[in-house]
Amino acid sequence: MTATPVFGDAEQHVLHEILAANRHLEGALLPILHAVQHQFGYVPAEALPVIAKDLNISRAEAHGVMSFYHDFRDHPAGRTTLKICRAEACQAMGADDLVDHARDSLALDWHETTKDGAITLEQVFCLGLCACGPAMMVDGKLVGRADVAKLDAIIAEARS
Description:
Elements: H1 9-22, H2 29-40, H3 47-55, H4 59-68, E1 80-85, H5 88-92, H6 95-106, E2 112-113, E3 119-124, E4 136-138, E5 141-143, H7 148-159
Parallel strand pairs: 1-3
Antiparallel strand pairs: 1-4, 2-3, 4-5
Helix pairs in contact: 1-2, 3-4, 6-7
């Protein structure tokens, strides 16, 4: 897993710019969390108390919202994010074998990143591609009818 970068003065400045640009929105917490993750690649733990204070909510509420949504992460991701659908429709089409192959090939568990920082493995519970299962998402791009060959090609490309 990659080391967590330091959240210094420059990052604090960027966070305050994000807050200033979004705090006026109704339900501002989600847009702020999205903007922070877009900017830094994750939501740093140091950012949550600042966000909570700015929005006049508790730290627990900010943390609860962040941890509820699976797309927010509290650590940096790899250069490629591989999400494999584990919903029932994809399981019926062989997703469990795909999951086993991915975890064995990458030597990872869910939400972990390869030592070289190339790939982060995530599980999701529906990508909306049920008719073309098993499904994966690679850096936001859907992959239907996924199989071991497609998975191996994605892994090889991510590591090149």
